[in-house]
Amino acid sequence: MSSIKNHVQLVGNVGGEPTITNLESGKKVARFSLATNEHYKNAKGEKQTDTNWHTVVAWGKTAEIIEKFVVKGKEIGITGKLKTRTYTTDDGNERYVTEVEANEILLLGSK
User: Fold this and answer.
1) Comparing C-alpha atoms, which of 63, 62, 57, 55 is closest to residue 22?
2) Which of 24, 51, 63, 83 would give a disulfide with 30, using CB separation of 3.0 to 4.6 Å?
């Protein structure tokens, strides 16, 4: 059961060009938004779509794959875990951010 603790699987479309950062250590980090859609019918029987946006972060080899093959609009699948971090804004307010830390990526759709 420990393998399903904090486990995320998403399939969606990349919302913008990934941002790649080269760290001083030589590692890369990739950041991008991922849109996932849920389709359902409302009480009147009309088709509806609910879109959720996720911030995805990937490190190392996974970031390198994203840099080479992932572009805005590309359909991908990812697995990873949720990570929450805090930071303080310039005006002293504390903010919380929850991101999906991807450890695997699956390139979907057409080439």
Assistant:
1) 63
2) 63
